[in-house]
Amino acid sequence: MIELRNVVKKFGSFVAVDDISLKIGKGEFFGFLGPNGAGKTTTIKMMTGLFRPTSGACIINGFDIQEHPVEAKRSFGYVPDQPHLYDRLTGREFLYFIGGLYKAPAADVVARIEHYCTLFEMEGFLDRSTEEYSQGMRQRVALAAALVHDPPVLIIDEPLLGLDPRSAMLVRRTLKDLTRQGLTVFMSTHLLRVVEELCDRLVIVKNGRIIYQEVTNASPDRSGRLEEIFLEITR
Amino acid sequence: MNTLLTILNVRATMFLKGITDRRWHGLSKNLATGIIFGGVTIGTFLMVRMLTGHLVHQVGVDTFALHRLLAIGLFTFFLSIYTIGLLVSYASLYASNDVNVLMGMPVSHGVLFMERAIENIVSSATTMTLLGGAAVLAYGSVFQIGFWKSLAILFAAFLPAVASVGFLAVMTMPPLILLAHRIGVRWMLLGGGLVLAAITFLFADAVDPLAAVRDATLPASRVMINEQEGITTLGWLPTNWVAWFIQAMARQRIVEVLAYPGLILGLLACVAICTDTVGRQWYYRSWLIVVEMRGKRLPSTGWFPFPPMEFGRFWAHRPHLEAVLKRDFWMFFRDPVQRLHLLVILALAAGSAFSLRSLDVMVYRPSSQVLSFLTVFLFIGLIVSSLTLRFVFPSVSLEGNTFWAVRTAPIALSRLYWLKFIIAFVLTFVPAELMVLAVFPAVLRSGALSVLGVAGMAGVVVAIVSLNLGSGAYFATLREDNPIKVASSQGASITFLGSIVVLVIATVILAVPASAVTGVLNPQARTQAMTWAVITLSVVAMLITVLSHRLGLNALRKDF
After folding, report:
1. CA distance to partner chain A, nearest, from residue B463 (Å)
2. Based on CB atoms within 10 Å of each CB, which residue in A122, B356, B389, B527 is the most buried?
3. Are B279 and B368 contained in the same domain?
4. Per-position b or e across A44-79, b if 16+ CB within 10 A of its CB
5. pLDDT tens digits, B279-327
6. Nearest alpha carbon to residue A190 among A159, A166, A165, A213
7. In this structure, is residue B271 part of a structural domain?
8. Model pTM?
9. B192 at the A interface (CB within 8 A)?
């Protein structure tokens, strides 16, 4: 579902992402880890079409994001690390807006908004202006927006940032359930415990290069071990 | 004082770093900025000089009538600086991230207010001051005022007056916020609007601007005018002090008016002290009120209902475009700053059109009729430029930090761009042509000139809307969510000057057929001249449109 082919991103002489190649299959929950400034967000921005790669290709659901942006973008939902919303719209209006952008059928959008409103416990604030939202509320609306058009791929950058423990648990559970139903998730995070709990496979990047890969679901007894590995190889 | 200087020093350093960027991109940008600013300033100087020279030397207008017109022009100029300064000051004082950062630091509210006031004056008045200064100097040069006297006009009268008006605009805002808190925002806006309208009406009633314009286009022999009439009518007005000072310089009677620079500089000192006092007393209180008012804002739905634009009510066959349309509609009309802004601009445009309609230009010779046509055309073009600068230029910037949602959605950016262009074009074209149709037939009493005006304005609107949208995308500041601040940025100033260049080009192109229409050429030659002018203008407009759209679309695809 997701393929990165020798992706490089340079800003002037600085190489932010250095020849990353990956293949992620359908229904896989993929963890993308690395220290600050490792190139995680830059990679995600190239995958979602927000950055143009210096070289290489990002292919989503069979479409190169640079060559066929509209087709590729139709295949994924995206939650950025800073989920800015439109201050003058309500959360519900934002979700309608996103549904419209993806040309999702109106009835489906209405049904999914209601579904995620209940699932992420947004009833209390979804009809208020997003200007009043806390970080956690914004995060939940952004996640619902990424799922409102029922995409086969979800790309998320720090999805649990700012969420209270209960909301974090709801999001984790939802993501796991959706991957069981065939959703492919590409998640960047610093929460190693969450990666251990959710991910089928992970990579660790440093200075723009992949320095470690692991198929985590093949190691049943791994509680806490990832932290040791991470600290060791990113030193 | 030290803190204020430190903050201003940081701002100046940031500005200098920006304009001395040695990288190719920065260098080319700064070079283009310099060329445009310099070119338009010189162009303004030459144009005003030519126009004034034509009136003085060829038409032979009465110089006192001209000075009276200058006094009225200066009042309008300073009133515009005040209004724009007031509109921008809300953003500078209450909606700026800089304020949020500095409020949490050990900086006194008086210092912070003063820093904001200076920043506000620089950001809101620079371009106008540049053009106004060039016009004043050009006016003086017709009367052969020398270099040193010109500098005296600039530094002892004009610039201190601009700074005074700038301070006055900023120091008005905190009391207005406190008043709005007490009586309600709507009543405050209504009261403020009425006061502004009353000032304009009383001024117009006292100086009779229409008679002044008429007198300034007539040969001196037909004007019966007192030497100081018009300026002495409201002698206590500081704008008249500036006008009188320039007049005295022109007539080499400097000693009589030496008190005026002193008065203007004294006024500046008084206004600066008052600004400091207002900052110390009321700035923090008003800032807290704004924060509180924002927190209490009513839910977005439930007020100002407009069912056709409600989300989720219906889906047309192009839901992605409909979604963008609805978003833009609500983002605009739910923003009180934008609503107020639109109201002010529309009121100014309607007022200008109404005033122009009442203008009774006595056409004694064809050259004056051509001049009237071109001047009115330029004036309406300037209104179009202001309208587009305020509402079209910021449209890409207003995508803001939430642009990620659109950039990652399956919508071609070119479609988004064209949608913005079509909306902006329609919303600019209709009022612009309405103004032309309202003014040209009434003032010029010539069907052919009116047709030329309608056709010319169509070309100008296409070019200026494209220019504003394209460069608005190129200079987009997605982290600035206040449209008024965006419209006062450096990029916006360059674009405004670019619009003036477009207007001047259009005016030059139209001057030929306008002369043919009013001259003695046969009807066939007139039609031919008009056709060629419209074709030339269309080609120029298309060229500007294509280049602007290329610039805008490429900018839209930049890394986010």
Report:
1. 29
2. B389
3. no
4. bbbbbbbbebeebbbbbbebebeeebeebbbbbbbb
5. 999 999 999 998 887 766 545 444 567 777 888 766 667 888 889 999 9
6. A159
7. yes
8. 0.80
9. no
